Amino acid sequence: MGSYIQNIKGTADILPDDIYKWHFLEKTIHDTMRLFNYNEMRTPLFEKTDLFARGIGELTDIVSKEMYTFLDRGKKSLTLKPEMTAPIMRAYLQHSMQSKTLVTKVFYISPMFRQENPQAGRQRQFHQFGAESIGSEHPETDAEIIILASEVFKKVGLADTKLTINTLGDAVARNKHRDTLKSFLKPHYNELCKTCQDRFETNPLRILDCKNPGCREITADAPVIIEFIDTESKTHYERVKEILKSNGIYYFENPKMVRGLDYYTHTVFEISSTQLGAQDAICGGGRYNLLARELGSKDVPAVGFAAGMERTLLVLEKNDTSIPEPLPLDIFFIALGDSAVSWAQSQIYALRTSAISCDMDYMKRSMKAQMREANRQGARFTVIVGDNELQSGNVILKDMEGSNQISVNLTDFVSSMEQKFHG
Ligand code: HAM
Fold it and tell me: Based on the domain organization, do 396 and 265 belong to the same domain?
């Protein structure tokens, strides 16, 4: 590998040979979002640290352990965004977006940063796509968000996904549940794993979805939030499930699923894949009616989701899902000698103007080597040109797949190609 500078652990280069997979995923996202009437929104890569501390919650893993936080030269604390929901809400409030329309529907595709231990499907710089619907408190919006996420996965060809849902009710229910849960767990405090012991005071809800077998055993009969929610929250949840059912979206209910961010209320959900092992969540989301208040505004109802793009592509790869390959190069010129190179180069510029993709070998190599290059590039056609062709006034256009070849006049080469490729 030599002694070149390497990339930072937990980051990845996306090389030209793989980029078509990203383009395919991004195009599917754009197309689906358009059908659902969500518009793209972009926010800066870094924000004031306070936005995430207040928005996601000081005591969450993301804020307390995983953020890339630094002081800039003016000694301001800034953070590379670990997620997009808080920035979107910040921008929504800042630009008074509610004054333009009652419901704002936006989507995003962006890198995110979390200092976690890297492993397959878990990076320090990763990409999320997601959507947020801000303004409506109705369960129809929760269902639309879940259906939208499912639709993107369906369209990219991801089978084998599992949708899990739960409700966290409102703040009153959460507080009641929190107290009861703590009383239930207290006698077992010493048997909890170290992380859950830390969570006992700060975030006891998260003990419910700890993966440690010992903790699971303790929480098997623990009180769950749904036992504490009021009729209104229950009706909201029932309506979400009803809409999912009537739209053919299958789901599992897990009354212990709480998610790792503090802003959630009512519906929460995750989509996972059996193909992923430990990091099996490809998508997570839910309703977050309390986030706007945390950011200093009045309450604004909202719901959304975000999905990991590396994880989505990993599952597609594991499933051998066919991803459309990029269009091949139309013509590769094999030019021998200075005059032929000049002629080829002028044709190339004219052809590109006519939307015919083409290229040539700039290494002035032998015909055999140039032919190999044309093959390596997967060109559909080659044109061989040397002094003989320039003298005779004709070049050979060779079909690389079928090995057919036709002779084309040099003087009207570009118009012949326009005719051939565009009819
Ligand atoms: P999250 O569950 O933290 O939710 O992240 C969503 C998805 O991002 C995960 O399911 C996973 O696929 C991917 N992801 C998270 N961390 C990593 C990582 N280190 N490496 C690779 N992929 C990762 C949120 O971010 C919320 N903002 C979702 C939301 C939107 N809720 C409401 N609106």
Answer: no
